[in-house]
Amino acid sequence: MSENTHDKLPIRMLHDRVLVRSDVPEGERRSGGGILIPATAAVGKRLAWAEVVAVGQNVRTVEPGDRVLYDPEDRAEVEVRGVAYVLMRERDLHAVAADRFEGSEDSTGLYL
Protein backbone atom coordinates (compact mmCIF):
# COMPACT_ATOMS: atom_id res chain seq x y z
CA MET A 1 0.00 0.00 0.00
CA SER A 2 1.40 3.38 -0.93
CA GLU A 3 2.07 6.04 1.68
CA ASN A 4 -0.47 8.40 0.12
CA THR A 5 -3.37 5.94 0.30
CA HIS A 6 -4.58 7.52 3.57
CA ASP A 7 -4.72 10.96 1.87
CA LYS A 8 -7.95 9.96 0.09
CA LEU A 9 -9.89 8.31 2.89
CA PRO A 10 -13.59 7.86 2.03
CA ILE A 11 -14.65 9.52 5.30
CA ARG A 12 -14.87 13.03 6.73
CA MET A 13 -14.14 13.61 10.41
CA LEU A 14 -16.70 15.56 12.43
CA HIS A 15 -16.46 18.09 15.26
CA ASP A 16 -13.35 17.66 17.46
CA ARG A 17 -12.44 14.16 16.29
CA VAL A 18 -8.93 13.17 15.24
CA LEU A 19 -8.06 10.04 13.25
CA VAL A 20 -4.51 8.74 13.73
CA ARG A 21 -2.41 5.81 12.55
CA SER A 22 -0.14 4.32 15.21
CA ASP A 23 3.61 4.46 14.54
CA VAL A 24 4.39 1.19 16.29
CA PRO A 25 2.61 -2.06 15.53
CA GLU A 26 1.39 -3.93 18.56
CA GLY A 27 3.34 -6.97 19.63
CA GLU A 28 7.05 -7.41 20.18
CA ARG A 29 9.23 -4.32 20.27
CA ARG A 30 12.90 -3.51 20.77
CA SER A 31 14.40 -1.36 23.49
CA GLY A 32 16.88 1.39 22.70
CA GLY A 33 19.67 -1.08 23.52
CA GLY A 34 18.32 -3.67 21.06
CA ILE A 35 16.72 -6.01 23.60
CA LEU A 36 13.60 -7.78 22.27
CA ILE A 37 10.61 -7.14 24.55
CA PRO A 38 7.75 -9.66 24.07
CA ALA A 39 4.17 -8.45 23.65
CA THR A 40 3.20 -10.22 26.87
CA ALA A 41 5.69 -8.24 29.00
CA ALA A 42 3.97 -6.06 31.59
CA VAL A 43 4.92 -2.40 31.40
CA GLY A 44 3.67 0.62 33.28
CA LYS A 45 1.38 3.16 31.71
CA ARG A 46 3.02 3.91 28.39
CA LEU A 47 1.95 6.58 25.92
CA ALA A 48 2.33 6.05 22.16
CA TRP A 49 3.10 8.20 19.12
CA ALA A 50 0.89 8.27 16.04
CA GLU A 51 0.50 10.22 12.80
CA VAL A 52 -2.60 12.37 12.33
CA VAL A 53 -4.46 11.27 9.20
CA ALA A 54 -7.65 13.35 9.36
CA VAL A 55 -9.22 16.00 11.62
CA GLY A 56 -12.72 17.37 12.17
CA GLN A 57 -13.67 20.98 11.44
CA ASN A 58 -13.43 22.03 15.12
CA VAL A 59 -9.88 20.72 15.68
CA ARG A 60 -7.53 23.67 16.25
CA THR A 61 -4.13 22.39 17.39
CA VAL A 62 -3.21 19.55 15.03
CA GLU A 63 -3.14 19.02 11.28
CA PRO A 64 -2.85 15.91 9.10
CA GLY A 65 0.79 14.84 9.06
CA ASP A 66 1.53 15.90 12.67
CA ARG A 67 2.82 13.34 15.16
CA VAL A 68 0.83 13.18 18.38
CA LEU A 69 1.25 11.50 21.74
CA TYR A 70 -1.78 9.65 23.13
CA ASP A 71 -2.77 7.01 25.67
CA PRO A 72 -3.33 3.71 23.82
CA GLU A 73 -5.63 2.48 26.60
CA ASP A 74 -8.17 5.27 25.88
CA ARG A 75 -8.88 4.64 22.23
CA ALA A 76 -11.49 3.52 19.76
CA GLU A 77 -10.12 1.56 16.82
CA VAL A 78 -11.57 1.51 13.32
CA GLU A 79 -10.46 -0.25 10.14
CA VAL A 80 -10.71 1.56 6.80
CA ARG A 81 -9.64 -0.26 3.62
CA GLY A 82 -7.79 -2.84 5.67
CA VAL A 83 -5.74 -0.30 7.64
CA ALA A 84 -6.22 0.09 11.40
CA TYR A 85 -6.72 3.63 12.71
CA VAL A 86 -7.43 5.11 16.14
CA LEU A 87 -10.27 7.60 16.61
CA MET A 88 -10.16 10.08 19.50
CA ARG A 89 -11.12 13.57 20.60
CA GLU A 90 -8.61 16.39 20.30
CA ARG A 91 -8.64 16.84 24.09
CA ASP A 92 -7.36 13.25 24.52
CA LEU A 93 -4.05 14.11 22.85
CA HIS A 94 -1.15 14.75 25.22
CA ALA A 95 1.39 16.38 22.87
CA VAL A 96 1.99 17.33 19.25
CA ALA A 97 5.25 17.39 17.29
CA ALA A 98 5.27 18.94 13.83
CA ASP A 99 7.79 20.29 11.31
CA ARG A 100 5.98 23.65 11.26
CA PHE A 101 7.22 24.29 14.85
CA GLU A 102 10.93 24.02 13.95
CA GLY A 103 11.42 27.67 12.94
CA SER A 104 9.67 29.09 15.97
CA GLU A 105 12.14 30.80 18.33
CA ASP A 106 10.18 30.40 21.55
CA SER A 107 8.88 26.91 20.87
CA THR A 108 10.43 23.52 21.52
CA GLY A 109 8.29 21.98 18.78
CA LEU A 110 6.63 19.76 21.34
CA TYR A 111 3.58 20.92 23.29
CA LEU A 112 3.07 19.04 26.55
UniProtKB/TrEMBL annotation:
InterPro entries: Chaperonin_GroES, Chaperonin_GroES_sf, GroES-like_sf. Keywords: Chaperone. Pfam families: Cpn10. One of its GO terms (molecular function) is ATP binding. Gene3D superfamilies: GroES chaperonin. The keyword Iron does not apply. The keyword Chaperone applies. Coiled coil: none annotated. Belongs to the GroES chaperonin family. Heptamer of 7 subunits arranged in a ring. Together with the chaperonin GroEL, plays an essential role in assisting protein folding. The GroEL-GroES system forms a nano-cage that allows encapsulation of the non-native substrate proteins and provides a physical environment optimized to promote and accelerate protein folding. GroES binds to the apical surface of the GroEL ring, thereby capping the opening of the GroEL channel. This is 10 kDa chaperonin. It comes from Streptomyces fradiae ATCC 10745 = DSM 40063. The lineage of its organism: Bacteria, Bacillati, Actinomycetota, Actinomycetes, Kitasatosporales. The gene is groS1.
